[in-house]
Fold:
Amino acid sequence: MRLTSLARLLGTALLTTAAGSALAGEVVVSAAASLTNAFKDAAQSYEAQYPGSKVSLNFAASGVLLQQIIKGAPVDVFASADQETMDMAQKQGLVLPAERHDFVSNSLVLIVPSDSKLAIKNLHDLTQKSVTRVALANPASVPVGRYAQGALKKANLWDSVQAKAISTQNVRQSLDYVARGEVDAGFVYGTDAAIMKDKVKVVFEVPLASPVRYPIAIIKGSSNAFEAQRFVSYLQTAPAQAILARFGFKQADGFRKP
Structure:
């Protein structure tokens, strides 16, 4: 009887292990460009915690990622830099509303090259004749561009600054333009400015009507819902949040531990 019971216990354990292995595997994550460095580290930590799992990362502007998903790109998890893009994904039935969470927050800042001598202390200073080029991501597809556009419109400066705008495809391109001194100033997230402290400097944080919160959601029809759910849940744990915080991200309102 003892041998039979032991056999049953071993059989149950083997079945449980096998089921877990079958569910584990690759999860494809499409994430906003501003999450690049933080998500690379988070993915490595996740894979170390769950042997056999693999996180494949795809970074671009949130709007570009959404279009990829709409066209059928094989994605399991979508992390956007704004609510508007995720709202569009939800309205089109691409993500599971119940599995949508805000997992980090950020800030919008104006940066200039580290050796800049321009006297820029507020948004209105961008209208000075000495400021000729401003890196501004395309508001139609890039959240950081929409945040900047909203702030400039509220200050009645949109038309003036837009005339000097050098359009970029994502926030990292804006950062690179400023770092190389190809523009006088640029709008990026605080986390982006932090990774190039030796080449750019923050002149001020841009006031916004609503905070920059990043939502994440599982794609409806994910080919690996188990792994997708586990990765999303992992990002809300204290260890993952510590990794994100190391890159300057802050906890979003409504943060919860799974």
